[in-house]
């Protein structure tokens, strides 16, 4: 079973770089305080690292 990561969008994407907005949308986050579970892969880790200042990583 693949590990999952729970992430939550805690800061707005308005006024951010287009690449950062695309990373947030690529992770499946659409609105503030939304939480999603994503697979723990190098690709998603890279996207999370790029926009870590907008996200909160939860245990799970």
User: pLDDT below 50 for ≥5 consecutive residues: which ranges?
Assistant: none
CATH T-level fold name: Ribosomal Protein L30, Chain: A
- The average pLDDT is 95
* Whole-angstrom Rg: 11 Å
- What is the number of helical segments per DSSP (H or I, 4+ residues)? 2
- N-to-C series of helices and strands: EHEHE
CATH homologous superfamily designation: Ribosomal protein L30/L7
Sheet-strand content, in percent, reads 25-35%
Q: How many structural domains?
A: 1
Number of strands: 3
Class based on secondary structure composition and strand pairing: alpha+beta
Oligomer: single chain
- Distance between the first and last residues' Cα: 13 Å
Name of the CATH architecture: 2-Layer Sandwich
CATH class term: Alpha Beta
Q: Could you name the key traits of this structure?
A:
Ribosomal Protein L30, Chain: A, alpha+beta, 60 residues
Question: Can you give a write-up of this model?
Answer:
The model has no long low-confidence stretch (mean pLDDT 95). 17% of the residues are buried. This protein has a single domain (4-58), classed as 2-Layer Sandwich (Ribosomal Protein L30, Chain: A). It is α+β, with helices and mostly antiparallel strands and 60 residues long. It starts with a strand and ends with a strand. It is built from two helices and three strands; from the N terminus they run βαβαβ. Helix content is 30%, strand content 25%. The chain is globular, with a radius of gyration of 11 Å. The chain has helices at 18-26, 42-50, and strands at residues 4-9, 35-39, 55-58. Strands 2-1-3 form a three-stranded antiparallel β-sheet, with no helix packed on it.
């Amino acid at each position: 079973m693949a590990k999952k990561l729970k992430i939550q969008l805690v800061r707005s994407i308005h006024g951010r770089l287009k690449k950062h907005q695309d990373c947030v949308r690529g992770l499946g986050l659409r609105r503030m305080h939304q939480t999603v579970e994503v697979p723990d892969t190098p690709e998603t880790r890279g996207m999370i690292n790029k926009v870590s200042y907008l996200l909160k990583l939860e245990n799970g």
